[in-house]
Amino acid sequence: MEKENIAVGLDIGTTKIVAMIGKKNEYGKLEILGVGKSKSLGVARGVVNNITQTIQSIQQAILEAENNSGYKIKDVVVGIAGQHIRSIQHSDYISRSNPEEVIGGSDIDLLINQVHKLAMLPGEEIIHVLPQEFKIDGQSDVKEPIGMYGGRLESSFHVVVGQASSIRNVGRCIQSSGIELSGLTLEPLASSDAVLSQEEKEAGVALIDIGGGTTDLAIFKDGIIRHTAVIPFGGNVITDDIKEGCSIIEKQAELLKVKFGSAWPGENKDNEIVSIPGLRGREPKEISLKNLSKIINARVVEIIEQVFTEVRAYGHEDPRKKLIAGIVLTGGGAQLKHIKQLVEYITGMDTRIGYPNEHLAGNSDEEISSPLYATAVGLVMNSIENKTQSAVKMQAAVTPEKVTYFREPIVEEKVEIKEEAYVQPERVLQVEPIKEESTENKIRRSFFDKYVDKIKDFLDNAE
């Protein structure tokens, strides 16, 4: 019997860390087996700034996902974001020794590897090399060169670049949490896999993922990624503004934003007031909802205008580059009331909220269909494409009251066995051995695996 391909995605965000375990069901939809969520400590604006706290948060999320699913996690695909991410356009070509030979996958790999050798600014490394249109012997707009003939194979590339130290810090956190890093994916790309349809990518669409620390942008046209950007503002700056503007503590500001916040100030009447308990015996504080929405509106307008500047930089105003499908909003910030209307008002583009339910199995938990989990769902989908066996079934120790799953085999000091039919506890808790990856799987691993291996070598050789 063929082993099921269990995939794991890890979304290391500024406000939360999500570990998600999933597999494809018989209808090709994503079935979520377990989710673990922990408060993200040690990450600011998408970048790790405290390794110890980040490791603890990752371990907490991993453990919760394992206990919920009954699978032991071996490796994960991780999302990468942060203000250090930038993208460039680049064209390159190779001359083939035998033009009479059919162009194959090895020629594309050769071209991609050539781009990976591009000289970057000091301290920067290439994360993704994404081919766009190909040219064969001067014939342009070739979408699929495999199977064609030609001597000169040329392509334009969308190259995503990030800070080497930030990427290595993420790798160090994963390794120190007791799991392996099987792949890196740019977070807006993962989110786009989860919430965009192929028709939208063909027509032209801008995906805006409003997270806690950053707002990520990915633009698609003709089914190809055209532009990516990471803006270093997110939901946290809105909370900070509420905290300062209303003179309340952060926890209360976050609750106010989620429960009563609106991005459209005209919505609230002047007499709508919410009362907040005072600190340590002080008088309660009364806050006008109209003022609250004015504070939120000012910051959301700033974030959307920065994103729209990037959309214009891509060339949206050029009729040939027009984004017909408009904007899709996702991430935790997309749950803010009336944000869709505000984005339409500022940009003049059709807008919808992106839910990751298109690829999820019908019986999925409603919470997982929230825009909050778009990146995590996309990372699991990415992990499935890698064809890796990222988690193995754990044996359960069954007691009459409940079933308990253990991450490590636990051996009790004193064991009294009264009946022969009982199995020794050590054996009950043994984890299934991990089989060597097949050659076919190795070939199918994505092209940035070499880069992941490079990070592993760096971490292993570090003092």
Question: How would you summarize what this structure contains?
Answer:
Helix content is 33%, strand content 28%. By secondary structure, it is an alpha+beta fold. A hairpin with a 2-residue loop joins strand 9 and strand 10 (139-142).
Task: Write a structural description.
Among the domains are: 86-165, 2-Layer Sandwich (Dna Ligase, domain 1); 198-354, ATPase, nucleotide binding domain (Nucleotidyltransferase, domain 5, 2-Layer Sandwich); 396-429, no CATH class. The chain contains 13 helices and 22 strands. It has helices at 51-69, 105-116, 164-176, 187-195, 198-203, 235-246, 250-260, 289-314, 339-347, 374-385, 425-428, 439-444, 449-461, and strands spanning 7-12, 16-24, 30-39, 43-44, 47-48, 71-73, 75-80, 86-95, 124-136, 139-142, 152-163, 180-186, 205-210, 215-221, 224-231, 273-276, 285-288, 327-330, 351-353, 391-393, 396-398, 403-405. Strand 16 (273-276) and strand 17 form a beta hairpin. Helix 4 packs across helix 10 (374-385) and helix 6 crosses helix 7 (250-260). The longest helix is centred in the middle third of the chain and has 26 residues, at 289-314. It starts with 6 loop residues before the first strand and ends with a helix.
Salient structural properties:
cell membrane; alpha+beta; 13 helices; 463 residues; five-stranded mixed beta sheet; single chain; Nucleotidyltransferase, domain 5; Dna Ligase, domain 1; 22 strands; cell cycle; SHS2_FtsA
